[in-house]
Amino acid sequence: MRRARAPLCPTLARLGAALACVSAAACRRGMQSALDPAGPQARRIENLWWLFFYVCAAVFVLVMVWTLAAVYRARVRRRETATALDVTDEPELAPAPQTERALRNVVVGATALTVVILFVFLVASFVTGRALWEPADRTNQLTVEVTGQQWWWKVRYLDAANAQNVFTTANEIHIPTNTPVTFKLQAPDVIHSFWVPNLMGKKDLIPGQIAYLWLQADRPGTYRGQCAEYCGMQHAHMAFYVVAEPPEQFAAWLTRQRMAAAQPASASAQRGQQVFMNAPCVMCHTIRGTQAGSGIGPDLTHVGSRTTIAAGTLPNERGHLANWVADAQSVKPGSRMPPNSLSPEDLQALLDYLQSLQ
Amino acid sequence: MSAAETEEAARAAEARRAETELARNPDLAARKVRADRRELDEAADRRALERTWASGRGLWAWLTTTNHKDISARYIITAFVFFLLGGVEAAVMRLQLARPENGVLGPDLYNQVFTMHGTTMMFLFAVPIMEGIGLYLVPLMIGTRNVAFPRMNAYGYFAYLFGGLFLYVSFFLHTGPDAGWFAYVPLSGPGYSPGKRVDVWAQMITFTEIAALVGAIEIVVTVFKQRAPGMTLNRVPLFVWTQVISSFMIIFGMPAVMLASSFLASDRLIDTHFFNPAEGGDALLYQHVFWFFGHPEVYIIFLPALGFVSAIVAAFARRKVFGYTAMVLSLIATAFLGFGLWVHHMFATPLPQLGQSFFTGASMMIAIPSGVQIFCWLATLWGGKLRLKTPLLFVLGFVAIFTLGGLTGVMLAAVPLDLQVHDTYFVVAHFHYVLIGGAVFPLFGAFYYWAPKFMGRMLSERAGRWNFWLMFVGFNLVFFPMHQLGLKGMPRRVYTYLPETGWGDLNLLASLGALLLTAGVAVFLGNYLWARRAGEVAGDNPWHAPGLEWATASPPPAYNFVYLPTVQGRYAVWESDADAPVVVGLKTDCREVLVTHVLDAAPGHRYQLPGPSIWPLLVALATAAAFAPGIFTPWAFAVGAVLAFLALFGWFWSDPKSGNEPGRAAQPAPPAPQLEPTPRARPLEEGA
Asked: N or C: which end of chain B has fewer CB within 10 A?
């Protein structure tokens, strides 16, 4: 009995917590939540949300009170007439004119109130919308080009002044805090949607078009984003992270990322590099500073420094990395990463090499 | 005193009592006179009508019937089966999403299942069931014998059936479409959806849209030309208004989706490049065309449900619905606005800001007519004497759920909010509140309300209450948490999610709610199956309801009314005079109906409708021969066109049995039908 009951209790407790959540709207903290803003845009939207929420909640309560009161009143009326005359089923074809007048006034009043509320909403929405698209500070020239493709995100840091500084990474975007960053968004295959709820609403990436968006984070943190437009088999596993750091820290990261990959130091890592160059890996991936230069898969120059692999699907740990390299299809069925049959020694060496790419 | 004497005395007393009652009540006297006058020929007319309108028995009769009630019953039953299938798909999805990284369905199957769920519910359930109920009730409500084009009606059903079967056969052959019910390009294009899955979807759309268009034309023409004398346009029941208006929306909206699906099919089949950006096509064009249909589609589904609500509210509040004119104008306004807000499905695309704000305005504006209708119903309830039966319970559930869905709709109209919650579970919650609350709850109310008319027996009231409460609680448990899931960042159409997202508990709650919702639907099914055999016999008008459909037997005879009625008010049965004239002079040896004028429903001429025919089925088969193999080769369309031509040739060829030779269809010199003179017959205008 005890054994059977044990798993039920945590489930019930969790259910209770979920219910509390629903009622109190308390669970709004989250790394992918529209109600936990970390930037000026998301905060404006959140403010607009609470305006809509409270007004709509009031309207809902009013309508419900009206409904229940109407039901209660009509039932009372029916009981009265039922005792006085036995004509409860006779329809009322000519209701009392004063009642009808009163009802008309209520209906007209409620409609007028609806119009006023909608007008307030319209203006509030328009004002918020305008603010979303114009950054307060246009001095920063940092532009990040994000290319959504089935099912990962290619990220290029552009630099108009110096083409040498342009570099490519994947699925993890670092930005400096308190600085607006421009995003240039595109998709070569199907429609994707770029969305970091804690920072801003989403923007669709339509093949054949380029979309622009700016983001700003005003507190350091890691914010999860996810593709929001159904894009095929692995739409569910097309996430990315935005890491907001203080400007100095960001500058250090930028410098590190601009460099080519470090040459493998240990013997095992050297062997791993050989494995990489001889295995199918080299057909799709780039590691700057080596011969690997294909653009089909994510750039792996600094893969060891990223927190996740497979577009936010797995933490970047040795075991997961091994699993991903050997049999990606079991992790993310349908992804473009083929299975690789490597001997255990080769696989360990390859992992040493990949993890050394900091 | 002997026994015979006692009996005689009793009889005399009875006669005296009846006499005094007649003297006291002239209305009753008139009714009696009328009944006496009619007794003789009514029986004969009834026999003649039975003969003329009989559909026959057996398989052949089943395949050839053109009776609107037979065909509508098929629509309703078929659509309900698809509803159950779509519901099973939903339940399987809830099972998969109950826990993070669950393994009930893999991504390939999940994507097929959610596509099938959306496609089934939108195209195979919601639109056909609303039209099916309309095609059943509208001729009864306006007092005629059949729809305007009975054979086309049969054709529409077969096209719908073949489309649905085609989709499900493909699904069970693991070729179910998997690009979503909206099939956005380029994902659904030849480059990213190889195989035949999306072709199946595109052709199925064509089938069901043909059926929808056919049904819409039936309803518009029937309502405009076949209303009973006296049913002027401002006496048309609100239910019939909703059917007419949503039919007009179908006529304007459905061609857009056929355009989208045909362009898509031709991109896939014959290498056109409508949507291929690499060749100068435009991926966004598809979205514009699709949503130009897709948004009105919501109102196409939802307006007929408002008709159910109005009918139920009047019958169970025991009074006329408050604000008839405001209601009709609101419906028309909804229909117009419904075509002007499709871009709110595309706020996240790179469209100009200013343009988007116009669509924000239009989207918010639609809350005004919806609000007016809710207020009018609440005013009706306020002024009525409620009978809190199951149909009214479902209407009250509708008010609660639909109001919430409408309010979240206003939120989605605001571009900034939409940018956050677009394509998340918030939207899933919103449109299920609108569609289940706005259409399915009234639909179940309608089942309880009209079941006595459909099958002559009442559904159980007790089971009805269980049904309502299970569905109401279950529904809210499933869909309310989804609002919060969306705000917490959960996107739609994901087959799984990671544990660290923190979405697990709310998803589990939603999945548990699905159990209650399923139980509610199961109670309904049980109730229906039980009532068919053992339900209380209903009689003509068990609710003492106002619509003309209650002025005939339950279930109605094939010819609907022995004598077509005349109408004295908006609530025909309630406002009917005891001595109201009826239409006489229509032939009983052929399928003749009365054609009246659009505005005032004044009698115009008599028109003979065709009888049973096999040609609708053959034309539908020819249509299927074009579209189903059309996913493999464009030549199928050439073959299908020839077959359809041959079948239509047979269709239009004279059919002596139905007396429908070309040129004889409309009586050239229409003699106006006489209205039976009754002791106190009055000119029709007087009551107007």
From this structure: N
